Amino acid sequence: MSQEELFLRYASPSERRMISREDLGFYNNIVVGAIYEFGEGAEEVDVQSLQTFAGPLRHCVDKFPYLKIVTRDAATEKPFFERVTSLDLENHLSVVDCPTARSGDGDDQQWMEQILESLVDRPNSIASIPPWRVVVYPIAPGRCFVAFVYSHIIGDGPAALAFHRAFLDGLRRQRKTAKVETVLTVPEFTLPDPFDVPGRLPISWSFLLGPLLAVLLPKFVAGWLGLQANAAKVDEGTWTGSDVFFEPGAHRSRVKMFAIKDAQVAAAIRVSRAHDTKLTGTIHQLIVRALSKHITNAKATNFVSQTAISMRAAIGHPSEEWGNYASGCYGTHPVVVEETEEGATTGLPAHSWENASSLSRAIAESAAQLRDQPLGLLRYAPSIRKWIQSKLGGRRDCSYEVSNLTIFSSSGEDEDEDNIEASSNSSYRQDNKMKQETNSCGSCCCQITQMVFAQPGGVVSAPLAFNLVSVRGGPLLGTITWGQGALGVPVEAEDALVEGIRRTFVEDFAGIGSSSSSQV
Hints:
This protein is of the alpha+beta class. It folds into 2 domains: 3-195 and 404-451, Chloramphenicol acetyltransferase-like domain (Chloramphenicol Acetyltransferase), CATH 3.30.559; 231-403 and 456-519, Nonribosomal peptide synthetase, condensation domain (Chloramphenicol Acetyltransferase, 2-Layer Sandwich), CATH 3.30.559. Helices cover 34% and strands 21% of the residues. It has helices at 3-6, 13-23, 50-63, 99-103, 108-119, 157-173, 205-216, 219-225, 262-274, 279-294, 350-368, 384-389, 426-438, 491-519; strands at 7-10, 29-38, 69-72, 80-83, 86-88, 93-95, 132-140, 143-151, 183-185, 253-260, 302-310, 326-334, 400-408, 446-454, 464-471, 476-483. Helix 3 (50-63) packs across helix 6 (157-173). It is globular. Residues 220-227, 340-345, 420-442 and 516-520 have low confidence and may be disordered. This is Alcohol acetyltransferase. Pfam families: AATase.
């Protein structure tokens, strides 16, 4: 078949950024994993068998066009997408021993950490095979961890929620005795248009001028004028970890997990709402407090955050529409000094709640407007690939990133973070479980009880990333990810530094939850 017959479309500027980043080895896989638990009849479900999961995976492949594409001319300025004519599920699906089975350790966080760290850096090296895979880790009879591992080129974080929802639906629908053919013939299809078409993301001259001049002018002139080639407001006092570096073959991403109980999350949402803020705004303040306590760089006076935002709502698309709809919202946070201000009744002092509320409004406004999105600036870059490479040796554009996928619900309904309050009610959880089990078409009773999300330590992006997701009726699981060497401290000190940040964040989160009962 000719290349013209396989051609789908050229990559958009945002897709070109992801393609170049991956081709250079700077960023590999997003991983969104979930614990699947089988209810009635679980003893008949063989979680060790590839056939158990082949049917649900075929259901996902049939549903999502992006699972059937490959990238061509990745090293050029005009990469494009082709469809594959056939797809062998055995190239994408594997069943692997879970680390907990080898260690005998019942701590879910420990083995999830090991799994995530082993997957985020695994390259998608075979150009003729779509860049994604599903790895199943049996935990116990009727219980397994399913990791969806995929290139950012084919989807953002919410796309993985759509995948798990479809995979769960496929598990519930399939007959236990069904034999699934693993080699699929792929019919012709059309790939949806990208999100970042120029007509959708208008850029004003005032928004364009600074970044454009920063690219075109010599660096010393741009620096003298205070211009920078990105939308973040990094200054001399901003902590950004180490300068950007990359050692081919030696780059390693690190992952550290944390868990927040569902009741604590619901309580934190209540007290956040009482202070006119969303949970994500509160999370930023907790992160800044933790960074301020454990990062001892004397020159640091502030942190610049980037919050990943989904632009689906701005164009009227469902919350889990597959594709890349992510943009970013930046914020600046002064380093927190020891407070003398009373904050015991709310877990945070008044100025932190004001900052949380202000950032929450900024995130909401950014997610609702298409004009002057940082993502739209990419189309003005003379060469996206060279622009990415030019970051080597320079400062990072922010201190940390927050990506909050909010709440996964298998019901198919859109979720808002405030709805997590319902999940703290045990009777709600039981009702939801019964609803899931009786909606199995007589085939397979199954539900997702926990979900976790990780991404690689970005070579050219923030030194730290906080990645969060929760399941309705379950805990909020988070990961802190970083590239080894990116934190500006000796490598041997990184684990202790991130553990301190993790511990302070979790303790302060619990403090907000415990204080809310007296406040609300």
